[in-house]
Amino acid sequence: MSDLPKVALVTGGSRGIGRTVAEKLAADGFEVYLTFVSRPEAADEVVASIEKAGGKARAFQLDSADRDAIAAFFKDEIKGKADLEVLVNNAGITRDGLMMRMKDEDWDKVIHVNLTGCFAFLKEASKIMGKQRSGRIVNITSVVGQMGNAGQANYCAAKAGLIGLTKSAARELAGRNITVNAVAPGFIETDMTAELPEKVVEAMLEQIPLKTLGQSGDIAAAVSFLAGPGAGYITGQVLGVNGGMYM
Ligand code: NAP
């Protein structure tokens, strides 16, 4: 047993689903390292809330679209300084629009943050976890990566790609006792979905057999399970947390 902190790294842990995941993993006993890109005050608030509850956390400004910065972060903050037990690839953005009008920059940005960023974190984490011969990786994909969604070609492509990445990584890393799974949220109440017009929300509810929107706690519970002792024999899976929207 090393004396290094037992860290769970949560990307985009400053708001929404990532915040609740960070708080849950801290309550589970991990020291949480969370990343954010634009709102330091939100990240500080999460750290304060975790510390108030008796846990430990640190926040890092780290753009998931910046591969060099991600490599430098692992070199400076993780390698030799922490036992990286859990990685949650959660940071994500939307730049919605119909395909024929979608700007190339909106396609590129969503793929860079939501897919390439996850690859960069996975690649670095797998080196550390590989040496430890243990680790849990959870990638936050989306129900629309499974179903498709008009107006979200970039986002759906990235999230579907993340499922392929999850399964390939699960096969590559299983020999080192590292599990890699995905959680696919349905329609969860966060800032990301708050912008949607009421009509769209009503139409969404029509598609959800459980007839209610999900909460970030529903996703945090799934992540906590996959990161916890009961899930050691589960890898390469996509756990839908979607109220039955996709079966
Ligand atoms: P959110 O409320 O918009 O929060 C996004 C988080 O990601 C924030 O902490 C944000 O930090 C961070 N972030 C954004 N771009 C980043 C970047 N380039 N580098 C580092 N951090 C970045 O989103 P959410 O609804 O909680 O979604 C979280 C994840 O769940 C995403 O991957 C999303 O695709 C997925 N998801 C959400 C839903 C849903 O219904 N909400 C459904 C399916 C899947 P800043 O505050 O600094 O910008």
From TrEMBL:
The protein's matches in InterPro entries, at most eight in alphabetical order, are given as: 3oxo_ACP_reduc, KR_dom, NAD(P)-bd_dom_sf, Sc_DH/Rdtase_CS, SDR, SDR_fam
Gene3D superfamilies recorded for this chain?
NAD(P)-binding Rossmann-like Domain
Which Enzyme Commission number(s) are on file for it? 1.1.1.100
Query: What taxonomic ancestry is recorded?
Result: Bacteria, Pseudomonadati, Thermodesulfobacteriota, Desulfovibrionia, Desulfovibrionales
The UniProt catalytic activity note for this protein reads: a (3R)-hydroxyacyl-[ACP] + NADP(+) = a 3-oxoacyl-[ACP] + NADPH + H(+)
**Oligomeric form and interacting partners:** Homotetramer.
Enumerate the GO terms in the molecular function aspect: 3-oxoacyl-[acyl-carrier-protein] reductase (NADPH) activity; NAD binding
Q: Would I find Oxidoreductase among this entry's keywords?
A: yes
**Keywords associated with the record:** Fatty acid biosynthesis, Fatty acid metabolism, Lipid biosynthesis, Lipid metabolism, NADP, Oxidoreductase
What is the protein name for this chain?
A: 3-oxoacyl-[acyl-carrier-protein] reductase
Task performed by this protein: Catalyzes the NADPH-dependent reduction of beta-ketoacyl-ACP substrates to beta-hydroxyacyl-ACP products, the first reductive step in the elongation cycle of fatty acid biosynthesis.
Q: Which residues bind NADP(+)?
A: G12, G13, S14, R15, N90, Y155, C156, A157, A158, K159, I188
Domain Ketoreductase as annotated: residue spans: 6-186
Task: Quote the pathway field.
Answer: Lipid metabolism; fatty acid biosynthesis
Name residues in a coiled coil.
Answer: none
Instruction: Report the NCBIfam families cross-referenced here.
Output: 3oxo_ACP_reduc, PRK12826.1-2
The family assignment reads: Belongs to the short-chain dehydrogenases/reductases (SDR) family.
> According to its UniProt record, which residues of this chain constitute the active site?
Y155
Q: Organism source for this protein?
A: Pseudodesulfovibrio hydrargyri
Q: Name one Pfam family in it.
A: adh_short_C2
Superkingdom in the source lineage: Bacteria
Q: Name one GO biological process term.
A: fatty acid elongation
